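Structure ticket #2291
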Amino acid sequence: QVPFVESGGATVQPGGSLRLSCAVSGNINTFTAIGWYRQAPGKQREFVAVISRGGSTNFADSVLHRFTISRDNFKDTVYLQMNSLKPEDTAVYYCNTYGLDLNEMTWGQGTQVTVSS
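Resolution: structure written out below.
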């Protein structure tokens, strides 16, 4: 069973914002780092952002300066704040541990983000 549950997806207009949540089952600090990933229709799943146990972050070039990632250790939750959304951000967004081969990982249901006018 995947210990991550994503929520917060919606349909928004280009230029809009959304905040996704990733609820971690158990202690969030069990994981060295937690990442957000996405999969657009007809494309492979790709890395979006990651936050380490210590709070260090990293982003894919395509979302740099538009997305931020944060964590609330008391709520065992990781957030992805998405601003200035573009149609190409349309995808199912997933959270999961970081550092493994994406094809080897088990995934939850994700949350759908659609950017469309």
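Closing remark: The first strand starts at residue 4 and ends at 7.
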